[in-house]
Write a structure and sequence with these properties.
CATH architecture of the largest domain: 3-Layer(aba) Sandwich
Low-confidence stretches: none
Structural class: alpha+beta
Mean pLDDT: 93
Shape: globular
Radius of gyration: 21 Å
Strand content: 25-35%
Order of helices and strands: EHHEEHEHEEHEHEHHEEHHEHEEHE
CATH topology of the largest domain: Aminopeptidase
Amino acid sequence: MVTIKEVKTKRDLKTFVHFPNGLYQDNPFYVPQIESMDRDTLTPSKNHAFEVCEGKYWLAYDEHGQVVGRIAGIINHRYNGKVGAKICRFGWIDFIDDRAVSKALMNTVESYAREKGMDKICGPMGFLEFDAAGVLVDGFDQLPTAYGKYNAPYYNQHLSDLGYVKEVDFVEYLIKVPEVIPERYARAAKIVAEKYDLHEAPIKNRKDITPYLNDVFRCMNAAYSKLHGFSELSPGQCEDLGKQFLGNINVDYLSIILDNSNHVVAFGVALPSLSKAMQKAKGHLWPWGWMHLLKALKNNDTIDLLLIAIDEQYQNKGVNAMIFDKFAKGIVKNGIKYIESTRELENNTQVQNLWHYLEHTIHKRARVYTKQ
């Protein structure tokens, strides 16, 4: 017998956030999320996404009172208005390998969706595009990036049996950095810069980023406007995103491309991989988790590619070569051996073309499902 209870108290929320860290504690490929950060994301007073979103969370209990699953139901009103649809998202989904549990969780979200007048379910997705999305369907023997999510192989079959079908897949690439990065990247970057009168922003430290931040977010909103699940970020949401990443940015892996009027037309950002450090932190920054993260930011042989955005006016013109040329200098300087692409749409050829001349492979795939 499965009992579903809505998350209503701070204690409930702690249980909700901790559940997958306990479920996968013995799995060598699971990367625990920092629980305090996850709680903040799910708390309306601490997440500006709630300016345009609403949601509820539920826990599943077995007959012995043990937690055996969790799920969130989310409605992003701004996105629904943008695409003219009535979509309820599900996210933060985890459960033991028991069909009664997965069915009870999905039935709960479907009931919530009907109550809210929605006619379609889609997920796993978060409030915004920058929350982890998708169920892992391939790559169970690979370590996720800190911005991905691990789950057991049975999730896919459970959701398929409940009538959920593929809406879109996200893929992740592992790129091996050669001993000598092909000169063609630098040549292409130089040609593009001269042809379109573009240049790299002069950033030597994190303080130098601040004058460009508003323009970076404007560029992101424009470039991502047609992406699956994306809705325009408000000033408050941009502030949240800045707080999340700015403190960790290494300017060696940051590229901001400016036109001849010093307006941002493209940018890219990567971070040293935090996956192994987060495994050591075991979901907590204190007392020693922050030390593991700090070490990973300073000494690493892998970087995770987080974001690349190019203004529509400059798309398909080779500007991504300028971004990668900047990354390449940091890669050589810091002895990076591997690049991990975080989850990107399987048809995102603009980014994928970057790896054409490097040894690369798709080593993880995650799926977003839908059901009427």
